[in-house]
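Tip: read the tokens left to right.
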């Protein structure tokens, strides 16, 4: 299984996501980032060598390759309408490439497990939105 068309459209419509890494001391760190999804991998990064000094790059370089992304928004408060996609993945990098923010250094994130809820943007009912859980297959080489 993979992401649905609705999930892909939704993630690409969100200008920011939250990106979580874990430092060598076990301290979680979460930061808003611009994310690009190419249909297989997520890409997080930026221009210039200074991006390599950010906590997210340092955490991955120190062996904290297990990461998480959350794309979410609150469509309406009254009635309450929330939706989102959460992705657990494995980060590799840095990779030099041209991304949506231009040329720079990026982390390549391979999705491992994802959950999505309320892609149809419906008001919440008598119970919270059910989640769609997907275990992603490793991308094929080549």
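Filled-in amino acids:
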């Amino acid at each position: 299984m993979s992401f649905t068309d609705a999930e892909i459209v939704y993630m690409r419509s969100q200008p920011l996501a939250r990106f979580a890494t874990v430092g060598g001391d076990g301290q979680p760190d979460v930061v808003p980032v611009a994310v690009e999804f190419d249909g297989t991998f997520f890409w997080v990064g930026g221009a210039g060598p200074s991006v390599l000094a950010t906590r997210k790059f340092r955490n991955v370089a120190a062996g904290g390759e297990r990461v998480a992304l959350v794309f979410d928004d609150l469509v309406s408060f009254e009635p309450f309408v929330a939706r989102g996609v959460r992705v657990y993945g494995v980060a590799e990098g840095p990779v030099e490439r041209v991304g949506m923010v231009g040329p720079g250094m990026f982390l390549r994130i391979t999705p491992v497990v994802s959950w999505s809820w309320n892609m149809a943007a419906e008001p919440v009912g008598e119970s919270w939105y059910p989640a769609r859980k997907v275990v992603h297959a490793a991308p094929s080489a080549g």
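Residues 35 and 87 are 12 Å apart (CA to CA). Residues 5-135 form a domain with the Pnp Oxidase; Chain A fold (CATH 2.30.110.10).
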